[in-house]
Amino acid sequence: QAQLVESGGGLVQPGGSLRLSCASSGFSFSSYGMNWVRQAPGKGLEWVSDINSGGGTTYYGDSVKGRFTISRDNAKSTVYLQMNNLKAEDTAVYYCAKALGAGMDYWGKGTLVTVSA
Asked: If we measure between CA atoms, which residue out of 8, 19, 114 comes closest to residue 69?
């Protein structure tokens, strides 16, 4: 059974930075792409970024492009999301999710990021 555990969320001021981590277990991590998805208060899910199994290909949503960086360490079965120049509209629960084809089949429980002065 795949398990994903996010960490690194918290309260940060606008313009600040955070790095999220997602520790994975229960599956062959290096064989799968990984995603970050977020849900702002009162809103639906928004895909943020994904990375392929080898880490050489990444994609970003328009709202975070140029500010967020996804990466992975296959030796540690962990995917990261470096978030810079954070804005109030980045406030959300951030989830990591394992890719399966064009979809996602396993999700973590999320970590809350609050951007506020």
From this structure: 19
pLDDT of residue 45: 98
DSSP 71: E
> Residue 66's pLDDT is what?
98
99: burial class by Cβ within 10 Å (0-12, 13-18, 19+)?
middle
Handedness of CA 86, 91, 94, 99 (dihedral sign): negative
3-state secondary structure of 90: helix
Tokens 């955070």 label which residue? 18
Mean pLDDT, rounded, of the chain? 97
Compute CA 40 distance to the chain's CA centroid, rounded to the nearest angstrom. Answer: 14
